[in-house]
């Protein structure tokens, strides 16, 4: 089950997982809200069942999901989303007596009195980073109930040739533009404000520097307004959500990700697969993706001076930036493949089913 409506982050991971598990002979039914983009990314013979979900407090969702479980009779339910799917989905699976696995993609702590109650709903929890696993362990969850299976990337699909002419025309950029992008939901914890605070000195030193802000969320209007004011006018471009991010990435100079909190960062996997160096923070699972000094630079969360210094270092040393990008690409191919991720999830399924006497 995946309740995200757009095909990025967790929803993209679910599409990778379902499509790859089918090669292993695993039958899959995807449950998602009506109109979700993920439905179009799932290939037959997997089927999609659209189930309405009004939010975390939509108690009626429990009954709707129970009907799907009764009809499809799965061996196991795998929940991938926080938006109502974690608790409500766990209740539905428990009421039907179906083994249930939860994927946790965020690193925010949960109360020590909530964890024993909530996580009793799940036979096992999969975290997408070791940092998220640590958060749950610190909250009192048993290590026997948690397995880390990191998010994956189809690296070959993101290793495309640049199209400089198209890129400059599409975003109305000058010939000499060197472009960083931040590709993330437009929400507070992604740290857009830190990047904006770091930019003025960089824009003064590097007049060819431009920033693309890619993504959608509640901060969109605020960021658009900020981009109309000096010194950001004509330099910061708030683009919104793009379906063609694969085409955009190869034309960038680097990616910046100044997040305050991050489970792992699928956008960072994509950037490295495209051969881009990354400036990011040591938040959550990011250090599991970006190797400081090797595939990019890591800064303390919220340290705008360090972010500016790291971006300046890349701009001053384009050969180093290129080497970092190549190192990141190799790392994605070696350590973050879809095959590795799918095998890790399948191993958890088999462990859960064996414990339930269904192995």
Walk me through this protein's architecture.
This protein is an alpha/beta fold and 359 residues long. It folds into 2 domains: 10-152 and 337-355, Glycogen Phosphorylase B (Rossmann fold, 3-Layer(aba) Sandwich); 155-335, Glycogen Phosphorylase B (Rossmann fold), CATH 3.40.50. The chain has 15 helices and 12 strands. The strands form 3 sheets. The chain has a 6-stranded parallel sheet, sandwiched between helices. A 4-stranded parallel sheet has the order 3-4-5-6, sandwiched between helices. Strands 1-2 form a two-stranded parallel sheet. Helix 12 links the parallel strand 10 (254-257) and strand 11 (278-281). Helix 1 (10-23) packs across helix 15 (338-355). The longest helix has 18 residues, at 318-335. It is elongated. It starts with 9 loop residues before the first helix and ends with a helix. The mean pLDDT is 94.
Briefly summarize what is shown.
By secondary structure, this protein is of the alpha/beta class. It contains 15 helices and 12 strands.
